[in-house]
């Protein structure tokens, strides 16, 4: 598998004690739109900033597109990065942003930048601080796309946008990836947005990758089982329990398995992407009697 980001025991510490990311190992494949999800504090933003060369690791190693992040101007030009809250210079006009992008990026696509600015109503003379939140997000995405990166990293780019602006942003991202065929890593708490654009999923919890794989394969191999109360030890060996809940008479499991499930005692239902993500975020020991947030019959 060709990778765009490869991390091994990667860690970032602030000060003497606070680790924002620790012992993280992950392979992010090329040629995909990768959704990176996890709870607050999981290390997603730190991982993406390390990949973009915005931070230096405290421990471990990370390579991006086969080399150290931001190691040379050429390497830096291969990666686009859009941070949270669509960072732009509020006192600069749209035209000044595009001229700055052209000066800083050797592969700058002026035609793409101008076309996107016109399509999303980014009037050249308007200062960025006067744009709507959705327009600022589109300006930030335009700057990332027009540098023609091989890898585009997006950290919660639509978290503060209204639903219409989120939809327009995601639609623009889908169109750009289809036309220009670059790799994308996108972090978001909004799984419904990831569902529209991502074909590969990485779930990160406490710096640890709990699951990673192509979305189609993950959905095909994860199932919800509902039936008479049953101890997890009685499940077939090939069924990995992701999370479970029990009442006095009923058990509900989310399991991962490659084999067909033929047990007539179980009602088997497929999972959506949000169900799958929530199951991993709410993993508990299979015998935990609490009602889990992730398993909703």
UniProtKB/TrEMBL annotation:
Going by the entry's taxonomy, the superkingdom of the source organism is recorded as Bacteria
Q: Which organism is it from?
A: Sphaerisporangium rufum
Instruction: Write out the GO MF terms.
Output: ATP binding; ATP hydrolysis activity
| Gene3D superfamilies for this protein | P-loop containing nucleotide triphosphate hydrolases (3.40.50.300)
> Which Pfam family is one of those matched by this entry?
ABC_tran
- Start and end residues of each ABC transporter domain: 5-231
Q: What is this protein called?
A: ABC transporter ATP-binding protein
Q: Which UniProt keywords apply?
A: ATP-binding, Nucleotide-binding, Transport
């Amino acid at each position: 598998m060709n990778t765009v980001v490869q991390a091994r025991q990667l860690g970032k510490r602030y000060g003497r004690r606070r680790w924002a990311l620790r012992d993280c190992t992950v392979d992010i494949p090329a040629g995909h739109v990768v959704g990176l999800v996890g709870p607050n504090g999981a290390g997603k933003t730190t991982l993406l900033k390390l990949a973009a060369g915005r931070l230096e690791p405290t421990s471990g190693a990370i390579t991006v597109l086969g080399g150290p992040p931001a190691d040379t101007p050429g390497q830096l030009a291969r990666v686009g990065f859009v941070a949270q809250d669509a960072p732009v210079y509020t006192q600069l006009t749209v035209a000044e942003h595009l001229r700055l992008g052209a000066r800083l990026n050797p592969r700058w696509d002026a035609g793409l930048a101008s076309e996107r600015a016109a399509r999303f109503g980014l009037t050249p003379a308007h200062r960025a601080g006067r744009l709507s939140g959705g327009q600022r997000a589109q300006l930030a995405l335009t700057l990332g796309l027009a540098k023609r990166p091989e890898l585009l990293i997006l950290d919660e780019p639509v978290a503060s946008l209204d639903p219409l602006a989120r939809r327009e942003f995601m639609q623009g991202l889908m169109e750009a990836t289809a036309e220009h065929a670059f790799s994308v890593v996108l972090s978001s708490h909004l799984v419904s947005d990831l569902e529209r654009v991502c074909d590969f999923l990485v779930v990160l919890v406490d710096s640890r990758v709990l699951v990673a794989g192509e979305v189609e394969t993950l959905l095909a191999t994860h199932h919800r089982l509902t039936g008479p109360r049953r101890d997890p030890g009685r499940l077939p060996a090939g069924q990995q329990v992701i999370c479970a809940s029990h009442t006095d008479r009923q058990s509900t499991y989310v399991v991962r398995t490659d084999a067909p499930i033929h047990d007539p005692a179980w009602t088997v239902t497929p999972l959506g992407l949000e169900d799958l993500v929530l199951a991993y975020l709410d993993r508990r020991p299979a015998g935990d009697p609490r009602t889990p947030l992730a398993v909703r019959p």
